[in-house]
Amino acid sequence: MEVRATDIYVATFPRSGTTWTQEMVWLLLNDLDYAKAASLNLVDRYINVGISIWGLASRAKGAKILKFKEEDKRKYKQIITPGCELLAAASDPRFIKTHLPMCMLPPNLIETAKIVYVARDPRDVVVSLYHFYRLMPVPQFTGDFKTFWNMFVRDNVIRTPYFAHIKEAWELRNHPNMLFLFYEELKNDLSNTIKRTAKFFNKEYTDEQISVLCNHLNINNFRHNDSVSLNFLADVFIPGEEPFIRKGKVGGWRDYFDDEMTVECEQWMAKKLKETGIQFPVFSNDVTKK
Ligand code: A3P
């Protein structure tokens, strides 16, 4: 896969704030062109490099036929076509979204292109992923949260292992081509995180412009924004499940973990944080400390 110096990557473990970051990055690099952003869905503005669950679903033998409205067929084609095919034909600058870990991306990527990586508290990630896999017709998880958690922590959920993914990007966090962000930083201080991101791309905006962008990115507006949502997939999502843009909270995991899961998770996180040296801004690495 060819890497170009003008490529811009947004890389994450799924459910870590990818969509939110994609919109922020795209707007910062496109002179805050809200009209253009509104006219093009993120699936048209970014090429997704990696495994397309939809692509697998549409090809799997015996998979139920995913039916799309006529006007949504083009967007659907966009999400099932392998990213590397779309990349070759794309003009610069190419905006690329990926859930692949760094080790599965081209080795010259970090020296050549710019990467914004976003990490999120794994407890909130697992809850969000659970809801997402219940919403999706594939893999269409139908069990309860505890079952999902047990699979996640044992690396039996598609996209895991979680910590290995973060670690590879974390190790590159001081590279000038890497901006390493946390979902919790976006939540706690969006304006400052936007400023850091703008600086990373050598862009300058006034406080007034940043304040407008904060408002645009606020989840209460974001969830009604058709050009960032996956509303065009509404007909194939499992009815009654929580939406793609869901709660957008820090610490929502507390409503899902029982005492047994909490203890197991604390032990898992303490071990992995020690092994990897990753430091989250929201909690001390002694995760048992309240
Ligand atoms: P929750 O399920 O915890 O609500 P991704 O884009 O990587 O799939 O991440 C999805 C998560 O980001 C979901 O988390 C979603 O609600 C949250 N999210 C999306 N847009 C957001 C926004 N503007 N502000 C805060 N969180 C947002």
Automatic annotation (TrEMBL):
Residues 6-277 form the Sulfotransferase domain. This is Sulfotransferase domain-containing protein. The keyword Acetylation does not apply. GO terms for molecular function: sulfotransferase activity. Gene3D superfamilies: P-loop containing nucleotide triphosphate hydrolases (3.40.50.300). PANTHER family: SULFOTRANSFERASE SULT. The lineage of its organism: Eukaryota, Metazoa, Ecdysozoa, Arthropoda, Hexapoda. Belongs to the sulfotransferase 1 family. It holds the Pfam family Sulfotransfer_1. Keywords: Transferase.
